[in-house]
Amino acid sequence: MKRILNYPGSKWQHAQKIIHLMPQHKSYCEPFFGSGAVFFNKSKVTLETINDIDGRLINMFTQMRSWPYELAQLVELTPYSRKEYELSFVLSDDPLEDARRMLVRCWMAIGGKTNGPVGWRRNISWNGPYNTFEWNDLPNRIFDVAVRLKDAQIESKDAIQLINELDVDTLLYVDPPYVQSTYTAAHYKFEFDDNQHIALIHTLKKHDGYVLLSGYDSELYQDLLNDWYKIEYSTNIGITTQRKKTVNEVLWLNYRPEEQTSLNDFWQSVY
């Protein structure tokens, strides 16, 4: 599926690689849904739960599922403009209109950041990125999202609480906000401090089902996850070709993928 959101830390580049590492399962949960890159690219299973504590984000996906035609029409009539970006910070009492504003926020903010006013994402060169082309294609993508979300459970609560409520046979893909020591500026409306990361990892280690955990490498995670399998891979981050940079992301697993002698070799084999 094509990208539905610009969102910090989203895994659209690497979704298929992550999915290839997943064992077979009938129950699936993403406690930190974000842009949903992995969910929207994986096959449907019997029970699926998506969750994010950001209520505006969850409302946006709920409106996509419930009113795709109406939301697509609103987006189609929305110009790519600074004024629309500024309006996106104002909450609307109408859930459908607020979903439109949240889409504007994610697509028109520099870096897709939702933590505050970070600037309007505009083109300064004909050589990309092609912001308006992507925005004008968004109505078509909304219909694909609606179909994929049709049978999913949509939650909006504390991720740790949700994980504790899950059955042991639930496969978890967990992509929390990055450890704050690994980046220089806030990205999300709801960040995660070190104590929350520690609590999250302790909760994940008690989960008897399969877990895949994404993040940047850090001393905190190295200490707490030294007995988990670890895969490092490179990804590009940034706004334009000139300003993009390569960083190393990590995927931790509480299991070993079947018939793979080297997790890093396997990662490269499905690139």
UniProtKB/TrEMBL annotation:
InterPro entries: M_m6A_EcoRV, MeTrfase_D12, SAM-dependent_MTases_sf. Gene3D superfamilies: Vaccinia Virus protein VP39. Keywords: Methyltransferase, S-adenosyl-L-methionine, Transferase. GO terms for molecular function: S-adenosyl-L-methionine binding; sequence-specific DNA binding; site-specific DNA-methyltransferase (adenine-specific) activity. GO terms for biological process: DNA restriction-modification system; methylation; mismatch repair. Pfam families: MethyltransfD12. This is DNA adenine methylase.
